[in-house]
Design a protein that fits this description.
The structure holds two protein chains of two kinds. By secondary structure, chain A is mostly beta strands. Chain A contains two helices and 25 strands. Chain B is 76% helix and 0% strand. Classes of the chains: A mainly beta, B mainly alpha.
């Protein structure tokens, strides 16, 4: 019997085991009634808000005290100079909700195309594509994500697209957002276009050419899945309590794709990426909750062969990390806590005698991470690459 | 009101079983399937006035069940972290519903598929939807549906092969 036939038979047998209640259950009827009542109530509230809002708007219009809003208060800003530490060629830049972003591109030592995004304060990420080596066509849409930078959006999607893809649709459950892709500047080394999208969970990305025809699709790329979603063999790598707050480090082992997340009651972050390149030495993630900046987690994924991870703080002190090597995973994970969420310093990854460092990202956030913009906490991430 | 109650009852009688079976095949959990089915009917009740074709109710329910199941899996990560806090370790254990028989290897493999791949095979091989029909339910193109189905079948074949060894 073919697997198709086996599937059909198995589905029938399983389905036959299940029957719904013969009549609409009372609790469902009650919920339907409640929903109708809520709809009615909502309509009344909406009408009331509309009346009050209209009255306020009218008051503003007729007020003679109203002065023109100065440009500085309209949150319109000049695009600032790019940060000094950008790696590769600056291929696109712009503003999102008044905050600047920069997209860079470069080829790493292995020849893989790396596209990075940097946000205000130097926070950002970079993804190096397997299959996009120099001279090969690569994927038509390269997808990278950067999660947890709460001031802007739950997730930043960025990457490169083939030069004929002029627009992208980001499709979520109920919403589709269309963005235009951005050409590389004249004289660029890259015959590609680039994109950045600030949004939430996305299920599918569709690429369109100049004629509006669909020319590329990304449907179940790991970057499009919430951590753990679609990766059925997801494990809690480690969990515990720190300073009265429960935390959990979770990771998916299903494939070479890298998916992990860190949860605490105060925040956390996570994401998925395609298989990191050979020069990758580890990720640096930080979550800085403003209520507990003195107990700040630093965590990430590392290659299995990593011997030691520690945070080297600017005051000369060192904070060793605990490394977890869950069975069956292609990656190991580390976690530690530092006494100052916004401290300057770096994370050192050691493999044998080779050591690679990556700066702590929170200290590079706007205003050293302590500014007003971070009163809701901050999550940032970056990757260490051996050069 | 009596008219809409009767209509809801009619639609329920016609489609509740199929909605719950679909939910069960997507989740592998009878209780969850029942909850999702009832949630789907609550959503449907708000739309009954706008659905004239009885067949359209079935299609609407099918899509709603698929979307509700997807939402459930998105939120599952938080629930699983909670389970871990409660001391019920889940490390190393594949995600599966409480009603999954140990003996049914293929069923277990289907439940291990990424959600959209699982949807694709359930819609194609259980619901017998055309590629276009399944793509409409998943809100994707026919090409994307084909890709999902192919990947699902490749995963199942390779898993069946490796388990046989």
């Amino acid at each position: 019997m073919s697997i198709d036939q086996e599937l059909r038979l198995m589905f029938r047998q399983r389905a036959d085991e299940v029957r719904a209640a013969p009549v609409v259950p009372d609790r469902t009827v009650r919920r339907v009634r409640m929903r109708k009542a809520l709809w009615t109530g909502s309509a009344i509230v909406f009408a009331a808000v509309a009346v009050v809002g209209g009255a306020l708007a009218l008051r503003n219009v007729v007020s003679t005290d109203a002065a023109p809003v100065p440009p500085a208060d309209r949150k319109v800003r000049e695009l600032p100079s790019p940060p000094e530490h950008l790696q590769g060629e600056l291929v696109a830049t712009g503003l999102h909700d008044g905050a600047p972003w920069w997209i860079t591109a470069r080829f790493d030592k292995a020849g893989a195309l790396c596209v990075g995004v940097t946000l205000e304060g130097g926070v950002g990420g970079e993804g190096c594509g397997v299959g996009s080596e120099t001279g090969s066509p690569g994927e038509p849409i390269g997808v990278n994500t950067f999660s947890g930078y709460a001031p802007l959006a739950p997730t930043v999607y960025y990457g490169e697209v083939r030069s004929d893809i002029l627009a992208l649709d980001f499709k979520a459950e109920d919403v589709t957002d269309r963005i235009e892709t951005l050409p590389a500047p004249p004289g660029s080394d890259f015959d590609l276009r680039f994109y950045i999208y600030f949004g939430g969970q996305v299920d599918e990305i569709v690429g369109f050419n100049a004629a509006g025809e669909t020319v590329a699709e990304v449907v179940d790329h790991p970057s499009l899945m919430a951590p753990g979603f679609g990766h059925q063999i997801e494990e809690v790598v480690a969990s515990g309590t720190r300073a009265g707050s429960d935390w959990t480090l979770t990771a998916a082992q299903a494939s070479d794709d890298l998916c992990y997340t860190f949860d605490t009651e105060d925040g956390g972050g996570g994401g998925c990426a395609t298989e990191p390149g050979p020069a990758w030495r580890g990720d640096v993630n930080q979550s800085a909750e403003s209520k507990h900046p003195d107990v700040a987690p630093v965590w990430g994924a590392i290659p299995l062969r990593t011997d030691d991870v520690r945070v080297l703080l600017g005051d000369g002190s060192e904070v060793p990390a605990v490394i977890f090597r869950p069975e069956g995973h292609n990656y190991a994970y580390y976690i530690t806590w530092i006494p100052d969420a916004f401290a300057a310093g770096e994370v050192a990854f050691r493999i044998g005698s080779e050591s690679t460092t990556e700066p702590l990202c929170a200290s590079r956030a706007p205003g050293g991470g302590r500014g007003k913009g971070n009163r809701h906490g901050l999550t940032c991430a970056s990757s260490a690459v051996h050069r | 009101m009596p008219r809409s109650r009767a209509t809801l009852g009619e639609v329920y009688a016609a489609h509740a079983d199929s909605a719950k079976r679909l939910a069960y095949l997507l989740t592998g959990d009878r209780e969850l399937a029942e909850d999702l089915t009832q949630d789907a009917f609550v959503k449907l009740a708000g739309r009954l006035g706008g659905i004239r074709d009885p067949e359209a109710s079935g299609a609407y329910l099918r899509k709603t069940v698929v979307n509700l199941a997807r939402s459930h899996f998105r939120h599952r990560r938080v629930e699983r972290a909670y389970l871990d806090k409660e001391g019920k370790t889940i490390a190393g254990r594949p995600v599966e519903g409480p009603d999954v028989a140990e003996a049914d290897a293929l069923w277990k493999l289907v439940l291990r598929l990424p959600y959209r791949q699982r949807c694709a095979v359930v819609l194609r091989y259980y619901e017998d939807l055309s590629e276009r029909g399944a793509a409409e339910v998943l809100d994707c193109s026919v090409g994307a549906l084909k890709a999902l189905t192919n990947r699902a079948m490749e995963n199942l074949r390779s898993s069946v092969g490796s388990e046989a060894q």
